[in-house]
Write a structure and sequence with these properties.
This protein is of the alpha+beta class. The protein contains seven helices and eleven strands. The longest helix has 81 residues. This is Sugar ABC transporter substrate-binding protein.
Length: 411
Amino acid sequence: MAWLSGSLLLLFALLLATFPASAAEYRLGAMDKLSIRVVEWQTAEGTFREWPTITGNYTVGPSGSLSLPFTGELQAGGKTTSEIASEIAKTLQQKFGLRDRPEASVEIAEFRPIFVSGDVETPGKYPYDPELTVLKAVSLAGGMRRAESGQRFERDFLNARGNYDVLVAERNRLLAKRARLEAELANASTIKVPKELADNPNAQKLIDDEAAIMLSRKDALTLQLNALDELKTLYQNEIVSLEKKTVVQNRQKDLMTKELASIGGLADRGLVVNSRVMSLETSVADMQSKLLDLDTLSLRAKQEINKATRDATDLENTRKAELANEMQATQAAFDETELKLSMYKNLMTEALVNAPAAGALAASSESEGPTLVYSIVRNSGNGETKELQAEENTPLLPGDLVKAVISNARS
């Protein structure tokens, strides 16, 4: 059965590979939140064991360290999730003297936040989004800080426009995501571009991003199903081997039974010693015991095949249920975004009615009204920071500090 245990270990490695650490090249930093899972293959028992004491969510500390049970303090700052996973597995193996190295999976549960300061309504800390730009961050912070009362409607218009742009981008992402979920539920190989995105210049990129997610999820499911198929094949081969052994054992038992019957009468007449008869009877009994053991092993292998079949069915049913729930949540988020878009459109209309100059402010970046000048303070990766000039569409990275200063308020 050693070859079977080794094959099971290989299959588990394939299964664990379906849970890749997200953002493989992303370098971790303070305040990043990680989801960590550790599973160990026990060769002696031929079973998997999860480490619930370690499995959970953790936050990278201010010094870049990560504190885990058993492993102690690990330096996570500047490292990737795959490097941390390898270090956790290696440390656990060395600390406990394990024969087999545990498998660790590290995923980014939440990026470290960004910060907005300067002449904005609500400076502070905000959650990071992969598509966050300077304008979106300033919009999250309430837009330009309130100045004279005469500028109120212009400021309201700018704030509403910024929030509206953020929601338009979110709605487009939700449209692409909904199209991907529809394709997954229909087992389609491609994603159909929604009609609402037909004229959007970024539509293809949104669809390509969702297609990459769909392919990754499909590959993960295929790997798991293939692993279960290979497991069933292993047990089916074992059953065939056991059946061949059973045939040989039955043949040997029949030969001994015939021999025992042929000398039984001779023993009664004293022509054959009784020890010979007892030896044959013992051999026949051993053969029967071995046949029962072979039947038991065969039955156990058939049970494992049935279990693998049920597991494959459960995987597919779970995937369908998750897709249905995700579709429902996506539709709810889309409906909420549509309502917010309508609200901000009405706010912009109201601002234009009360202050027609707000329209000119939106149409021209050279308006006489106050404007914001942006810069980003970013960690350079070696413990130092540098300040970069930025525009409204400059993309942000986790941990960035956005400075927004009103141009005519600077000395």
